[in-house]
Amino acid sequence: MSGSKGRRWGTPRLRAGTPRLRAGVPLPLLLPALAGLVFLVLPLVALLVRAPWRSLPDQLTSVAVWQALRLSLITATAATAVALVLGVPLAWLLARARFPGRRLLRALVTLPLVLPPVVGGVALLLALGRNGIVGRWLDSAFGVTLPFTTAGVVVAEAFVAMPFLVISVEGTLRAADPRYEEAATTLGASRFTAFRRVTLPMVAPGVAAGAVLAWARALGEFGATITFAGNFPGRTQTMPLSVYLALQSDPAAAIALSLVLLAVSIAVLAGLRDRWMAAS
Amino acid sequence: MTTRSVTGSRPRVRWTYRAVGGFALAVVALTACSSGDSDDSSKKSSSGSGSSSENLSGTVTVFAAASLKESFTALGKTFEKEHPGTKVSFNFGGSDALAASITSGAPADVFAAASPKTMKTVTDAKDAKGTPATFVRNQLEIATLQGNPKKIKTLKDLTRSGLKVALCAKEVPCGSAAQKALTAAKLKLTPVSYEQDVKGALTKVQLKEVDASVVYKTDVKAAGGKVAGVEFPESKQAINDYPIAPLKNAPNAEAATAFIDLVKSAQGQKVLGQAGFLKP
């Protein structure tokens, strides 16, 4: 994803040509800064240092690992798709529509961002579980039960990841000039056509960035998944779940699995580097 | 193209919002992995200086299997009453996870495991003092919904189609015991989920998300009528011994010994017996 030059999408950007830092960094700032950097980087270095490099090929080609990785990739992608279909319109509503209670709505939408995932999982169970408020009715009317199914994993991941996308897209929409849309509507386009043909192409980079973030978040989701969808190899056991369980019986396998997830995370960051380190 | 807005006060608001949103995104996204159950790191205890058992002081840290939660909590209160100035702090969890954290250097005084195998992990790492003693035994039982609407009478009933069953993961003692019982009964059972510890398997029944799970007698008792227990003869083939041992690097060795003595005493055995444990 190439960063379109100069477009903002909801993060304050480091301006190119940041003030010259070489003109002496005050020590009280430098020391905690370096400590903070070490604190963030050291665990990842440890993961690389202690990785079972020799047995790594065997670890990573085992059926269980591939099963978990495949399931993780499929569910994270599906959750991102769900987030896109529901999240982009929601972001538009928050950014463009004027109605009372908009701030409350935004707070509600972003709540899953700060909610502990396990709590999200419990809440999902109480809502969509077999005995849940809506789940009970789903079960009796359609015979659909979400917990312990792959669909349940997607639901849990989408619940946790969608706010990322909504915030990201909403930020982009607010930054985008509404006058283009207005111009389109005065020229006879309906509001939906204006959204589809003018707004969406304009905010596409923001949507893409939000989607990648949501995808990465869904891939790493643990708490809500294990609470709502349980743990069954091949059906609901995603990578983070198998890392956790492997840690109890086979730490080497857990490290190998963690490396895979680390590699994926780095790839995502590399894809987003233009956005994090925008150089105009 | 640039996105400078032309309105008066909105840019500042928007920037703050974007800054906050962006910051939240950056922080949360990059820490994407959310741990399910926080690893209660035990507090460093101030080692008691008293050499005789009469004047114990400080904190004694006990790592114990999840199934011991109710009875050990009660015994902890007894201990604190008997030895004023002491404090018992517990870390309950899956025996494997506890063993793993002990072997990686968690500062604990006592380890009470739900299986000899998990205790062996600790003794093999030379982290235990002396030989672990079996202090109780625990038998499996089927936990099912209140009033047993599914009419479950035997272990074989769990294999009926359309019945949702949760088992413990094979890595944790209740899971390996359940597998043993199933093997003894020559049954093949595919659960909907392999839970991380026995309390997880029980909770899924309490929430009515599954129809039954295989847990310990003590757990059914602890659930106090919220689930119905069904005994089955094969459970005799898979009775779990619970070993307890003081740890080598115990910060509070005297208190550790005193706590283990209390567990083994007639009084301790009475409390454990009331919880549904069998005598060793």
Automatic annotation (TrEMBL), chain B:
<dbReference type="Pfam" id="PF13531">
    <property type="entry name" value="SBP_bac_11"/>
</dbReference>
<feature type="compositionally biased region" description="Low complexity">
    <location>
        <begin position="44"/>
        <end position="53"/>
    </location>
</feature>
<feature type="binding site">
    <location>
        <position position="95"/>
    </location>
    <ligand>
        <name>molybdate</name>
    </ligand>
</feature>
<dbReference type="GO" id="GO:0046872">
    <property type="term" value="F:metal ion binding"/>
</dbReference>
<keyword id="KW-0479">Metal-binding</keyword>
<dbReference type="GO" id="GO:0015689">
    <property type="term" value="P:molybdate ion transport"/>
</dbReference>
<comment type="similarity">
    <text>Belongs to the bacterial solute-binding protein ModA family.</text>
</comment>
<feature type="binding site">
    <location>
        <position position="198"/>
    </location>
    <ligand>
        <name>molybdate</name>
    </ligand>
</feature>
<dbReference type="InterPro" id="IPR005950">
    <property type="entry name" value="ModA"/>
</dbReference>
<dbReference type="InterPro" id="IPR050682">
    <property type="entry name" value="ModA/WtpA"/>
</dbReference>
<feature type="region of interest" description="Disordered">
    <location>
        <begin position="34"/>
        <end position="56"/>
    </location>
</feature>
<protein>
    <submittedName>
        <fullName>Molybdenum ABC transporter, periplasmic molybdate-binding protein</fullName>
    </submittedName>
</protein>
<feature type="binding site">
    <location>
        <position position="216"/>
    </location>
    <ligand>
        <name>molybdate</name>
    </ligand>
</feature>
<keyword id="KW-0732">Signal</keyword>
<dbReference type="GO" id="GO:0030973">
    <property type="term" value="F:molybdate ion binding"/>
</dbReference>
<feature type="binding site">
    <location>
        <position position="67"/>
    </location>
    <ligand>
        <name>molybdate</name>
    </ligand>
</feature>
<keyword id="KW-0500">Molybdenum</keyword>
